[in-house]
Amino acid sequence: MRQVDLVISKRLESTVPLVGSISQYIIGAGGKRLRPVLLLLCSGALGFQGSQKFNMAAVVEFIHTATLLHDDVVDDSEMRRGSATANARFGNPASVLVGDFLYSRAFQMMVEAQDMRIMETLANATNVIAEGEVLQLMNMHNADLSEASYLHVIRSKTAKLFEASARVGALLAQADPQHIDACATYGQALGTAFQVIDDVLDYTGDLKTMGKNVGDDLREGKTTLPLIAAMRLGSPSERQEIQQAITNADVSAIERIASIVQSTGALEVAKLAAQTEAQRAVNSAKLLPKGPHVDSLIALATQLLNRDH
């Protein structure tokens, strides 16, 4: 990961000072770096030792960071990772344009791998992510969103880059089709579990630990799995309260809605869904050659369920 950070720092350089300032600001704010980690672990599990893995790990982090910059503008977010968002500090126009810079820099770098399958994987993933963003926008304030539609959105918006990162790791190793598919399935399952837990934390976390405001999803009118489950399990009046809060993005109702989500057992339903996805990830990891990299993949999927930020 230190090698990846060196690549990131070098490739963020630009002759336009503001580009470098904003890029360094958001990437320097930290983050879990899960997507680069997946790429490194999968390539390592399949025996790849080349330095191109560091470049491709930086590529997926650049794509992810670009989506964050754009997300925060769309959602009008003010906090991320415990600090002011780039759009809050530098303004929306600069954040959008620097997000575009990170996308284009990522595509410049992925060409260097000279592997059409890697370019196809990352290009397709970027396109699916964009579609997922639009789907989520279309579903804002939609209290009738089904669980299947919710899962479709998060598998497009969040899990797709996890899947692509793991697949690229296997492609770098020139693995056989079965191992490539196992890595891709692991990434998709892990990414899905990650997002479901993230949605759970929106009702159980706190600003200091999470680095963002609790209740942000409801504030933005997002219908997440905890809300979908609470509407299914709650009384008619509780269901109506949640529907109105989603439709109106009612900030004043956040405490009341959080109470309903917790009392109906909706959080347990969401956690079980995440656990199912995590187990799917574990099962896929076990199809790879045994070793410390696979042990880490299994541990990552297991520990993901206990995260608090």
From TrEMBL:
Q: What's the short name of a Pfam family annotated to this entry?
A: polyprenyl_synt
| Keyword presence, Cell inner membrane | no
- Is Transferase there in the keyword field? yes
Question: Its Enzyme Commission number?
Answer: 2.5.1.90
Give the UniProt keywords, A-Z: Magnesium, Metal-binding, Transferase
Annotated catalysed reactions = 5 isopentenyl diphosphate + (2E,6E)-farnesyl diphosphate = all-trans-octaprenyl diphosphate + 5 diphosphate
Q: Which cofactor does it need?
A: Mg(2+)
Read off the PROSITE patterns from this record.
POLYPRENYL_SYNTHASE_1, POLYPRENYL_SYNTHASE_2
Q: Which GO terms describe its biological process?
A: isoprenoid biosynthetic process
Gene Ontology MF, one:
all-trans-octaprenyl-diphosphate synthase activity
Q: What InterPro entries does UniProt report for this protein, alphabetically?
A: Isoprenoid_synthase_dom_sf, Polyprenyl_synt, Polyprenyl_synt_CS
Provide the family line. Belongs to the FPP/GGPP synthase family.
| Function of the molecule | Supplies octaprenyl diphosphate, the precursor for the side chain of the isoprenoid quinones ubiquinone and menaquinone.
Name assigned to this protein: Octaprenyl diphosphate synthase
Q: Native species of this protein? A: Rhodoferax aquaticus
